[in-house]
Amino acid sequence: MKIASVSELKKEFKHLENDELIELLSNLMKYSKENKELLNYLLFEADYEENYISKIKEEISIAFQNIDSRSWKTMKKPIQRILKLVKKYIKYSKKPETEIELLIFFCEQMRKVKLSFKRNPIVFNIYMRQITTIDKVMLSLHEDLRADFNEQIEKLKDL
Questions:
Q1: CA distances, 154 to each of 10, 71, 134, 137, 151 (Å)
Q2: How many folded domains does the chain comprise?
Q3: 135 — phi, psi (to 5°)?
């Protein structure tokens, strides 16, 4: 079975009535939690980006508090899970400012963990990859916004 392209689907949406669109969206939400989360962001959170960011930061900090910090072996998987969650929320927003702010917060939370992550190469590489990602996204920002984030990023780079 051949699947229609995005442009074909958009053309088809234009021919549908409001009730039919609502029915299609309802069916879409039933099959994927991620679709439902994306629609929730687009309908309720997109206009209030600061509130969205603060909710995510709260969720990240709670997740870091619940990590078992006895050894890096028990911490690696939860950190990867938290990062996956952060990336999902970044994907919904698609705004570089949001991406930078959330990744900076993620790295700051990693630095607050009791154990030194420099000793574990896997966790250290996760941290350094986020710094690299932040640097790449910074290039797409306006100079004024870059200046706002530079101090925080320099603190993260200073190990």
A1: 44, 27, 11, 15, 5
A2: 1
A3: -60, -40
pLDDT in tens, the chain (159 residues): 888 888 988 888 888 899 998 898 888 888 888 988 888 898 899 899 999 999 999 999 999 999 887 777 788 899 999 999 999 999 999 999 999 999 999 999 998 887 777 778 888 999 999 999 999 999 998 888 888 888 889 988 887
Separation of alpha carbons 64 and 28, rounded Å: 32
> Dmax over Cα atoms in the chain, in whole Å?
59
Please check whether residue 34 lies inside any domain of the structure: no
Domain range for residue 112?
Answer: 48-157
Instruction: Give domain status of residue 41, yes or no.
Output: no
